[in-house]
Specification:
alpha/beta, six-stranded parallel beta sheet, three-stranded parallel beta sheet, 15% strand, binds NADP nicotinamide-adenine-dinucleotide phosphate
Length: 312
């Protein structure tokens, strides 16, 4: 039987555990605060930010939201970050990516105070992660690591193929998994668009993580029996194209109303035939990413206030 890894349930457990840490902080007079900054009118970015704010509200984190006109000068964003860096009620800062083209993304990442860098993308925090001394693990890779742990899949000694080498998922995940530390000790191969014969790599793997942004790129044919599959991909696929042939189910009909369907980077049905465990999309990595943002905010609040908190 293939285990369908329930990211919602695992994330709910982490959030429940975080609740204890938040109580410790509030008892000490500290309310953890997370500032989200949105400089975009992209509907997906707006949705992500509002979900993050809702998550904060649900667990007792003070969510501060700043919205900037996407046409505003870049200096406005840099000044906003400076203000948030200086605000003692803000423990974590997240600038929703992507920012408009006229804004220097690298400057944004460097401007956030490293100790408030809830995403873990500041060069200092990237360096610490690579050196095995992570302050904030980036939320999605950390979420993947926690998913594996909760599923009882220890990467130690395993061959892991990470498909995708982005700064936010592929690279930091590969770095986490090679660490000589709990949740690491894997032999990691990182694949990307220039990789020759991707299938030859994935079919050797005990664990495959797909973070590509190409709908259903990884198919069952590319996997070995018993593999663990983690699908990070979230792709909006036009429902009319997807169901141009064949009959529709009830959930398909619901998707039709929205006009799109969320599809991962893995072809779920064929991969499920090979996998011993697999994450669905949605309901796999997504909720974990959100939970780990709360985790980083609570960690940041503990460190900045000097209150000892026990993190899950
Ligand atoms: N669930 C979550 O919480 C969460 C969080 C973050 C991202 N995501 C999703 O995860 C996916 C990846 O996101 P990202 O930000 O990492 O994407 P990204 O920055 O676009 O990077 C995609 C990576 O995939 C590689 N790639 C593209 N086509 C390929 C192919 N045909 N074969 C092999 N590799 C290929 C690219 O290679 P090159 O480097 O050579 O271009 C790149 O390294 C997206 O669907 C995104 O929406 C989900």
């Amino acid at each position: 039987m293939t285990e369908i890894i329930d990211g919602n349930a695992i994330a709910a457990e982490i959030r429940a555990d975080l609740q204890d840490a938040i109580s410790t902080l509030t008892d000490a007079g500290v309310t953890p605060g997370l500032a989200t900054v949105l400089m975009s009118d992209d509907p997906a970015s707006e949705t992500y930010v509002s979900m993050k704010q809702r998550d904060c509200e649900e667990v007792g984190i003070n969510g501060i939201h700043v919205e900037l006109d996407p046409e505003a000068p870049a200096e406005e964003l840099y000044a906003t970050i400076d203000d948030l860096n200086a605000d003692p009620d803000v423990h974590g800062i997240l600038v929703q990516m992507p920012v408009p083209d006229h804004v220097d993304t690298r400057r944004v990442l460097r401007s956030i105070a490293p100790e408030k860098d809830a995403d873990g993308f500041h060069p200092e925090n990237v360096g610490r992660l690579v050196a095995g001394d992570a302050r904030f693990k980036p939320c999605t890779p950390h979420g993947v690591q926690k998913l594996l742990e909760a599923t009882g899949v220890d990467p130690e000694g395993k061959d892991v193929v990470v498909v995708g080498r982005s700064d936010i998922v592929g690279k930091p995940l590969a770095n986490l998994l090679i660490q000589k530390a709990e949740g690491g000790n894997a032999t990691v191969t990182v694949c990307h668009s220039r990789t020759k014969d991707l299938a030859a790599k994935t079919e050797q793997a005990d664990i495959v993580v797909a973070a590509v942004g190409v709908p259903e790129l990884v198919t069952g044919e590319m996997l070995s029996e018993g593999v663990t599959v983690v699908d990070v991909g979230v792709n909006r696929v036009d429902v009319s194209e997807r169901h141009s042939e064949g009959s529709q189910t009830e959930s398909d009909e619901a998707d039709t109303e929205k006009g799109y369907e969320l599809v991962g980077d893995v072809e779920f049905e064929s991969a499920k035939e090979k996998a011993s465990a697999i994450t669905p999309v949605p309901g796999g990595v997504g909720p974990m990413t959100r939970a780990m943002l709360l985790y980083n905010t609570v960690k940041a609040a503990g460190e900045q206030s000097g209150v000892d908190v026990e993190l899950p």
